[in-house]
Amino acid sequence: MIIASIRKDCWLLLRDRGALLSLFLLPIVFILTFGLMFSGGGGEPGKGLPITSFQITVPGNAVLFGFYIALTVAVTFATERRTGTWRRLLAAPVPRSHALLATLVPYFLIGCAQLAFLFGLGAGVFGMEVRGSVLALVVLSLCVVLCAVCLGLLFAAFGGTERQLGAMGSVTLLVMGLLGGCMMPRVVMPVAMQKVGLTMPHAWALDGYYAALVEPSTTLMDVMPSIGALLGFSAIFAFAGLSLFKFER
User: Fold this and answer.
1) Could you tell me the pTM of the whole model?
2) Domain total in the chain
3) Is residue 249 part of a domain?
4) If pLDDT is split at 50, 70 and 90, which confidence band does 7 have?
5) What's the domain range around 145?
6) Are 98 and 247 in contact (CB under 8 A)?
7) Is residue 182 in some structural domain?
């Protein structure tokens, strides 16, 4: 039953053109546009090492749009409640925790596919160089997706209609991405704003990505602060979401 539910949700998500557009096509447009705009020179997003424009725009937009899976998660819960799908799933002879997990797993898988696609495209098509550890890049990406899905659970816990969640979630994610440095590297922000940015998981993710992409000697251990922060945010979002989530609404 649970496996069938996961397969169904994956299939429905893959058939959702709007979701695929926002998760896969729109990031490419942003990556390409800003990559070409800033291709005239190198930058110094961290430790003064020369970088290419796509080493900034690929992770920046991957994190920005990667977190939009949270909005998709929240809207899905609202839709399933409205259509009665969630009620039927709860009626199945399985623990409610399994039903909740079955709803979240497809979005974790899609999120992983999204980041793999964007970073693969960045390296293979846009010439984004990975100078550090590929393993660090992979582990960071898994933590980013986990954090986004947990944030989606928190959004869903507040309830509301699809339209309400869409409006609230879009603005929230946009502000988080802006403060976290997805649209403008934090290194060019005022010092006070750089510190404010660290209250967002996006900032920690980007710090780890920049280290893995720019610094040749970067290992998995070097990005552990970013990984630890992302796991911490995930735990906070998951705990708050589970505390507020109402199975019967």
Assistant:
1) 0.88
2) 1
3) no
4) low
5) 2-244
6) no
7) yes
DSSP letter assigned to residue 49: -
- Between CA 211 and CA 46 the distance in angstroms is 8
CB atoms under 10 Å from CB of 86, counted, come to 21
Instruction: Identify the CA nearest to 117 among candidates 177, 178, 61, 71.
Output: 61
Q: Distance between CA 11 and CA 16 in Å, rounded?
A: 9
pLDDT score recorded for residue 46? 45
d(CA 80, CA 103): 10
Mind giving me the DSSP string for 89-112? Answer: HHTSSS-HHHHHHHHHHHHHHHHH
Question: Does residue 155 lie in a domain region?
Answer: yes
Distance CA 149, CA 13 (A): 15
Report yes or no: 2 and 99 within 8 Å, Cβ to Cβ: yes
171 in a domain, yes or no?
yes
- Tokens encoding 37: 């705009």
Q: Are 132 and 214 in contact, with CB atoms under 8 Å apart? A: yes
CA distances (Å), origin 176, targets 15, 44, 57, 155, 179:
28, 22, 17, 14, 5
